[in-house]
Design brief:
Oligomer: single chain
Helix content: under 10%
Distance between the termini: 37 Å
Number of strands: 11
Shape: globular
Largest sheet: 7 strands, mixed
Radius of gyration: 13 Å
Length: 112
């Protein structure tokens, strides 16, 4: 299974970004997918996850701002990020299959 993230970039505070996690070599419909992030000098932290049934779980700090969704027909999981804050700056990584497979990550930078 290969995992590839995309959609990161440099935005201003209050802007939105949509990250995508493309999964190949396996059926997305049977995999739980999670997003994590790691800022410089910080530990990696959980952001959001969606299981194979479509049930989602969010970290407290993203509730009301970030939304995770999956499109099994496109083998893609998206993370819609609204009202971005400078403290959201990090490398965002996607993990599939209960963190068995990881992507390389995509940088999100939010300027104040």
């Amino acid at each position: 299974v290969q995992v590839v993230e995309s959609g990161g970039g440099l935005v201003q505070a209050g802007d939105s970004l949509r990250l995508s996690c493309a999964v190949s070599g396996g059926s997305l419909s049977s995999l739980a997918i999670a997003w994590f992030r790691q800022a410089p000098r910080n530990e990696r932290e959980f952001v959001a996850a969606v299981n194979w049934r479509g049930s989602t779980k969010d970290a407290e700090f993203v509730k009301g701002r970030f939304t995770i969704s999956r499109d099994n027909s496109k083998n893609t999981v998206s993370l819609q990020m609204n009202s971005l804050k400078p403290e959201d700056t990090a490398v965002y990584s996607c993990a599939a299959g209960n963190s068995r497979w990881w992507g390389q990550g995509t940088q999100v930078t939010v300027s104040s």
